[in-house]
Amino acid sequence: MLGSLQDAEELTQEVLLRAWERQDDVRELSANRAWLYQIATNACLDQLKVRRRRTLPHLLAPASTAMQLSPPTEECAWLEPAPDTLFELEDSAGQRPDERISSRESVGLAFIAALQSLSPKQRAALLLVDVLAWKPREVATVLETSVVSVNSLLQRARSSVDARRRDLAPPKVSSTDEALLRRFIAAWEGGDVDAFAALLSDDARFSMPPQNEWFVGREAIHRFFAFAWSTLPGERRLLPLRANGGPAVAVYNRPYAPNAVFRASALTLLTFREERVAEMTRFGNPRLFASFGLPSELPSSRPNLEREGH
User: Fold this and answer.
1) Domain residue ranges in the chain
2) pLDDT above 60: residue 95
3) What is the pLDDT of residues 122-168, one digit of tens each?
4) Which class would CATH give 175-298?
5) Tens-digit pLDDT profile for residues 226-237
6) pLDDT score of 62 more than 70
7) How confident is the model at residue 94 (pLDDT cuts 50, 70, 90)?
8) Is the peptide bond before 210 cis (omega within 30 degrees of 0)?
9) Using CA atoms, how far apart are residues 265 and 253, in angstroms rounded to an integer?
């Protein structure tokens, strides 16, 4: 609902407090789950009345052409990634055929970005019905409205999300993708911009919140990385991980200096399509590393963290 792991963690404290204060409202243990979802949904709706909508750079402005970046904007303007360890992402064999959104798709960055374009009540209706499999009449109770109103909210939300269905396709992990990730990491760590660009699709997209600028197309991204790596000399180390249901890398940088350590730089989420890298979303906020159980620094030697998952 909120598009931010930090916001969600903070609001969870408020939800638990509200539940504690209202615990006498629940007479039957079997009703606890729906009751807690109602409290959490209403807490989110209250929060969204006073907080600005989070988004991604490519949803705000045309692609950039200049290499020089403007000053970064406020962190609270942008979506945030979340580690896969928070989610149950195994596709259920008993999944109902009428479910529109799989568990893996529902945590994808593209889907969360699409949610932010909806009104708060449309978000709530779509998540409760199409992700959590609530019935419209149950959602009507939570939102204190009619079933007709809930169905209207759903229709508008689904129409908006369906318009972006190509971007919302859940990632499929294969041995080919794992090999692609290894080549991607090797090219980035080696500073080989030509090998790096060769892994991109023709229409690849690269954005980097909290920067407003973003780039589209292999050639434009090639020019940007050639410029960035030439103007920011040093060494880079990447650790593979999983975020929002797909592959990602944690990027550490260090200057050319004796005994220098690698410092956390950014988390970059990746989308693979047809054996190419179709999208890179770089979150340049080292604070996010702690949420993924990653250290803020790495020693010069290769750490034990470099394995699948962390």
Assistant:
1) 175-298
2) no
3) 999 999 999 999 999 999 999 999 999 999 999 999 999 888 766 66
4) alpha beta
5) 999 998 878 999
6) yes
7) very low
8) yes
9) 6
pLDDT-derived band of residue 1, with 50, 70 and 90 as boundaries? very high
Please write down the long-range contacts of 43-52, taking CB distance under 8 Å and 24 or more positions apart: 43/11, 43/14, 43/15, 43/18, 44/1, 44/2, 44/11, 44/120, 44/124, 45/120, 45/121, 45/124, 47/2, 47/7, 47/11, 48/1, 48/2, 48/120, 49/120, 51/2, 51/7, 51/76, 52/76, 52/77
Amino acid in the structure at residue 130: D
| Amino acid at site 151 | N
Structure tokens at 277: 């890298």
Structure tokens at 198: 């060769």
